[in-house]
From TrEMBL:
GO molecular function annotation: monoatomic cation:bicarbonate symporter activity; zinc ion transmembrane transporter activity
Signal peptide range in chain numbering: none
Any one GO BP annotation for this protein: zinc ion import across plasma membrane
UniProt protein name: Uncharacterized protein
């Protein structure tokens, strides 16, 4: 009798590869959309609060966000393609998560006009950026797999060059902030 009950449950335990592939695409898509959406929302908050404080702060924050978002969005796109999505689906999911940046920017501009709120926004977003850099990016940089015959120092050179380029862009923006401000005020 026990054997008879276990042999027929009223539902199937057969694995269909199409269903498994569809479920794994959906899981990865939701992870990318939610994770990247929260990240984009915080980027928007930072940009909006920075523009509410000053034009030059907004421009420098926008440049910083652009510099870190380009490789990040390309990586998300690659993850979605590797998960089995076609190009159209991957672009759509990336665009959906990117819309949250505009929503965050609008909220950031509104809250950025309140002095205490903008300080909290900058503190929280700065903490998120540090968290992402230390928990997500740093382990990725140290776990680069080199192919046979490749020099591991070549990867280190490219990584250091990228960090120096990013810091250099921000240094140039900071050094020429008064000139940038006068150009923007004249127009």
């Amino acid at each position: 009798m026990l054997g008879a009950n276990n042999s027929h449950h009223g539902h199937s335990h057969h694995s269909h590869t199409g269903d498994v592939k569809h479920q794994s695409i959906a899981a990865i898509a939701w992870m990318v959309i939610l994770g990247d959406g929260i990240h984009n929302f915080s980027d928007g908050l930072a940009i909006g609060a920075a523009f509410a404080n000053s034009i030059t702060g907004g421009i420098s924050t926008s440049i910083a966000v652009l510099c870190h978002e380009l490789p990040h969005e390309i990586g998300d796109f690659a993850v979605l393609l590797r998960a089995g999505m076609n190009m159209r689906q991957a672009v759509m999911y990336n665009c959906v998560s990117s819309i949250l940046c505009f929503i965050g920017m609008l909220i950031g501009v509104v809250l950025g006009n309140i002095n205490e709120a903008s300080l909290w926004i900058f503190a929280c977003v700065g903490g998120m950026f540090l968290y992402i850099a230390l928990v997500d990016m740093l382990p990725e940089m140290t776990s680069v797999e080199t192919k046979h015959g490749e020099n591991p120092y070549c990867h280190l050179l490219f990584q250091c060059a990228g960090m120096i380029l990013g810091a250099g862009i921000m240094l140039i923006v900071a050094a020429y902030e008064p000139d940038l401000l006068s150009v923007l005020d004249n127009h």
